[in-house]
Specification:
Elements: E1 19-20, E2 23-24, E3 37-46, E4 51-57, E5 68-69, E6 72-74, H1 81-93, E7 103-110, E8 120-127, E9 142-149, H2 159-170, E10 176-178
Parallel strand pairs: 3-8, 7-10
Antiparallel strand pairs: 1-2, 3-4, 3-6, 4-5, 4-9, 7-8
Length: 182
């Protein structure tokens, strides 16, 4: 019996034998080997104090040495991007955030990157709640970590992240999409 669109196996998860109209659904394995690098970045926004947390990349960094950046990093194979964001934030700053509280602030789709010759997709999240005090938890990778007033975002912030941060600060509830290099 055909199912209503979006309502498989009695409105549960569709099974391989379910149909929508005349199309039989086929269960496919998760797409874990994407050619596009998936990255998560986090805007740590202390609204009460009017500031954002940034880190400065080290002088030996393969990507943007000595530039300021958002806490960010690559998703591990099979890892949900919200979990990647929370993990990277903790690894780099010591802050703990519940992945369920993260909100999408922007998407950056780049045509290439230092470790992404086939392109990258960065999901930029905002965090307004966290536990802990920020520290430079990876001093071999980052020169320093600092709070910046929202009116003083540094010019030497990684350009696509700077655009995403400024867009978020102008309109916090509206996610933006950037397609750098296409």
């Amino acid at each position: 019996m055909p199912l209503a669109a979006g309502c498989g196996s009695a409105c549960g998860k569709p099974t391989p034998s379910d149909t929508i109209g005349k199309v039989t659904l086929v269960a496919l394995p998760p797409a874990l080997d994407s050619h596009t690098l998936l990255v998560a970045a986090v805007i740590v926004h202390d609204e009460a104090a009017g500031r954002v947390l940034l880190l400065q990349r080290g002088d030996a960094s393969k990507f943007a040495p000595l530039h300021w950046d958002l806490p960010s990093g690559k998703a591990d194979k099979g890892e949900p991007v919200t979990a990647s964001a929370a993990r990277e934030l903790n690894e780099e700053t010591g802050l703990t955030v519940d992945p369920a509280t993260l909100r999408v602030a922007g998407i950056i789709h780049g045509a290439w990157g230092v470790e992404a010759p086939n392109g990258f997709l960065t999901v930029v999240f905002s965090a307004r709640e966290w536990d802990g005090e920020p520290v430079n938890a990876e001093p071999r990778e980052h020169a320093q970590i600092a709070w910046f007033p929202v009116s003083e975002v540094p010019a030497d912030l990684v350009p696509d992240r700077r655009r995403a941060l400024l867009s978020y600060l102008r309109s916090p509830g509206e996610a933006t999409v950037s397609t750098d290099g296409f």
